[in-house]
Design brief:
The protein is α/β, with parallel strands linked by helices and 304 residues long. It has helices at residues 11-19, 42-51, 67-76, 90-101, 113-121, 137-143, 163-175, 202-212, 224-233, 249-258, 273-277, 294-303; strands at 4-5, 23-26, 33-34, 37-38, 55-59, 87-88, 107-110, 126-127, 152-155, 180-183, 189-193, 196-199, 216-218, 242-246, 262-266, 287-289. The structure holds magnesium ion.
Length: 304
Amino acid sequence: MAPRHILDLSVEEQRSFIDSFDMVISDCDGVVWLLVGWIPGAGEAINALKNAGKSVKFVSNNSFRTDDQYMEKFDHIGAINVQHDDVVHPVKSIVRYLHKHKPGKRVYSLMSLEANETLRKHGIEYESLQIKEHLTSASLVNYLAIERTVDAVLFDIHLDMSYVELAKAIRHLQLNENCQLIAGGTDVIMPLAENLNVPGFYDFLQHVKRYTNRESISLGKPSPILGDMLKEIYNIQAPERCIFVGDMLVQDIQFGKSCGFQSLLVLSGSLTKEDMIAAPPEAQPDYYADSLADFIELFKNVQR
Ligand SMILES: [Mg+2]
């Protein structure tokens, strides 16, 4: 069945829609705010969902913000009572994975300074390179020397990523055949601001994989490992009583559906209604809305 706009449902249908879920898991960028900029009414809508007794959690593919920076953004939009544990993003999933599968192991980080800060806070021993000087082939050789091997290379969105960092990640993977390649945010496109979509980090990961003949373990959306992790973290027993809200077809809608959640696409990110209609069946949402703010209107309708 074609996705329906939540405000085109009859009042009776809007009531049963609201009654059909207990938990909302929402993407952040493009839904709750823009990477650069804000979405009117998003904070108020989150508060309205909570006031209606819904548990509201957030899952983002962006770890280039620390938890504190996430909290500042939730404060800015007036969303009340959002806790650190209410937000999952790749570096947090990576920390969880490392604690479980590689306790005490040393890793090489091809991630942002903010992500590295999160590693440090969680007691993960990591190596990283931040080189600002002009490189020559001789200095490159020095930087690529491996003193100690690592058990995993961590890859995520990293706006300062440089050639030497990538080359060293490849060296680490080549030198230790048991070294795992673990990836967080690997979106193809990053919607940066209105009318400004830039390439995501997908192709940089492909580069590492191609030169090392290695597959990566993905812990960002739409990875099924992340889906299982979310069910564990938030103790989700009945996935059909949970709705996933996002602005992307694959990372959000297809991911939510593969977890057994209901799905809602918002058009406040980079996609249009036409993009949604053109999507393959597995990425078609159950519902759509212009933005999260449509929930404010919907609650007014059902309370009448
Ligand atoms: Mg998004």
